[in-house]
Amino acid sequence: MTTILNIVERAYQGTLEEQDDQALWLIHALKNAGAAQSVLLRGPATGYAVREQLADSLEIGGVKPGNPSRIDQDLQRLIEAGVKVWAIREDAKERGIAPEDTLAGIQWVDRAEVAGLFQEATRIFAW
Amino acid sequence: MADNATTLTIAIMDPPYETARVTTALRLIEAALRKGINVNVFAYEGAVSLGFTEQQPHANPVKGTSVEEEGHPTPKDWVAALGELGNGRDGKGKLDWVNCGLCVDERGMQNQATGRRGGPQHLYEFLQNTTNVLVIATR
Amino acid sequence: MSQYLFIESQDPFEDKGAEAYLATALELSKRNESVTVFFVENGAHAVRNGAQVPIRDALHSAGARLKVDGFALRERGIKADGLAAGIEVGGVDDMVDLLASPDTKAIWH
Questions:
Q1: Which of the ends of chain B has fewer CB neighbours closer than 10 A, N or C?
Q2: Chain A residues with beta carbon closer than 8 angstroms to that of B45
Q3: Do the interacting molecules here have an ipTM over 0.95?
Q4: Which domains can be identified in chain C, with CATH numbers?
């Protein structure tokens, strides 16, 4: 069975729409279609693991998004849908992200373990 | 390698003019088609503007040259040329270019030089019937 | 047997992600995996002989194949006779040949 490792690195793309992050949205859509996938958060995207992210204060010229993005909830839904979500421990630590502030379902790996994830996957998509 | 049994799927996300990724992606697509390799393209987010037919070439006021003197194509011309190249004839590969419909709508880019409207389901179908996949995400 | 194609498009002096991906390529090389690193676009800034990119040299020492897109070289005025040890000049045809194998795991960064 083809298994896809999605490495999500780029993060916070402007919050213009609810589907921000676009990669996570597409990964969820592909999961719903039947694709076997996992996610590895690296670099700035380790910030996605933090609980209680809010972008609901966005308002420009009196115009507010009806459904602002909730990245932590999107990630939680992905985990609940059965997608394994890893994140790189050192990348979070150097950004001052405390483990106790993150989603319980995240599986933390060291940078040295990433090569093993590459070996286990059939395909690797770097977002 | 003109076996017509090999298919590559390339997902792209960038609009033209901002990054070199667009140029490299179009070069890769052409190289594959010329080798007889079929190519699926999933144009996601800003990449749906690559084939937008209302693009217009412009003069260069810095050099003082006219549109005709400049003679540079816009990205839609390259996309259209790839559509023509990828007709599957003369040993060339076939091009199946899908533009993400939601991305098209939010950008108002319904008029496209080539390809068809689709969504994640089409990307999923591409992934089920492909030799390999290259995701060229934006950065 | 799998082979890995890392297409590196980012300037390694500016983008920490480039070093992270190349570090994974190096680790895979050390695990005796077949690894090709293809420098394209601003990734080509890594291949000049005088460019200080220790991980590039480590990849060469570990047996990874290092290639650079000839278009990216010419676009930046980088001469083919001024490349670091182990760098081969190639192009999109070479990338497509690698992608045409179902055993290639392709990663664009």
A1: N
A2: 22
A3: yes
A4: 3-108 (3.40.1260.10)
